[in-house]
Design goal:
The chain is α+β, with helices and mostly antiparallel strands. It contains 4 helices and 9 strands, in the order ββαβαβαβββαββ. Strand 2, helix 1 and strand 3 form a beta-alpha-beta unit. The C terminus is likely disordered.
Length: 153
């Protein structure tokens, strides 16, 4: 939980989901994860929700895992930042030798926070030795009742 000056609370949930595998065992594990995330949302007092990490699926209806998460996204009005922020992200995962590139790392925010996202991009750096490219999401401060020009942040 991040609490901003003025008491605005953002519930932050970091995820790592396993790669898709057909079968009931995998589906059951994914539903357990979704249940845990929903429990976190329900049991914590917050003004906004931010879910980020390695989802291991692209955010479109052609992917089974995304379809599984649709109920959670719809219920809590979550939006993938790459769907509304002006972004030209080509990939967040690359496997050069196989020639595979995909966007499987995401930041989801609920509608309370979506209007505050001003930048969403990857940080492509030569010092990153991972097969994932970090995603950077810039969110302007949420209005917390401070007067314009206040020196506090």
């Amino acid at each position: 939980m991040i609490t901003l000056h003025g008491g605005y609370k953002i519930l932050v949930i970091n995820v790592y989901f396993a790669c898709y595998e057909p079968g009931q065992e995998y589906q059951s594990a994914m539903l357990d994860c979704i249940g845990f995330i929903e429990n976190c949302i329900l049991l914590n007092d917050h003004d906004a929700v931010l879910i980020l990490g390695d989802f291991n699926f692209e955010s479109d209806n052609n992917h089974a895992d995304y379809k599984t998460f649709n109920n959670l996204y719809n219920e809590y009005k979550l939006m993938c930042c790459d769907s509304f922020a002006q972004s030209d992200i080509q990939y967040t995962y690359c496997h050069d030798s196989l020639g595979r590139f995909s966007v499987i790392d995401h930041v989801f925010v609920n509608t309370n926070l979506a209007g505050n996202v001003i930048n969403y991009m990857v940080v492509d750096s030569g010092i990153n030795l991972s097969d994932h490219v970090p995603v950077r999401c810039t969110i302007v401060p949420v209005s917390t009742g401070l007067a314009v020009g206040s020196q506090q942040c």
